[in-house]
Design goal:
Elements: H1 3-44, E1 48-54, E2 73-80, E3 86-93, E4 106-110
Antiparallel strand pairs: 1-2, 2-3, 3-4
Length: 113
């Protein structure tokens, strides 16, 4: 391949490369921020966060209660309160449009014991 052909290829595909890099970076930032919001929610509510696991497919019980957008992140969580009681539930993190990137919103549904 000649220098000209390589240069032409890079020039013609640079927009796609930049777009894919931006989408990847925004996805990583949103994921990191949603984990931060979960940890801060636990601290604010005086819970010890024992486990939290992001649901990659499905939205847990939020399907039945107001739904969740594809921009929000849903976690299954187990926490311990100040009295030593363990609780399990589901967290929906972030706003409808921008997820956790620009929102600290957290909704919780507790699993009844």
């Amino acid at each position: 391949m000649s220098y000209h052909a390589i240069s032409e290829f890079i020039h013609s595909h640079s927009g796609w490369v930049i777009l894919m890099a931006a989408i990847t970076i925004l996805g990583c930032l949103e994921s990191a921020r949603s984990r931060f919001v979960v940890r801060r929610w636990a601290t604010k509510n005086e819970f010890e966060l024992l486990t939290y696991k992001q649901l990659w497919f499905g939205i847990g019980p939020f399907f039945y209660k107001e739904g969740a957008s594809r921009n929000q992140t849903v976690y299954s969580v187990t926490v311990r309160d100040r009295q030593g009681n363990d609780k399990s539930g589901w967290l929906r993190v972030g706003g409808w449009w921008w997820g956790a990137l620009f929102s600290d919103e957290v909704d919780v549904i507790w699993v009844s014991d």
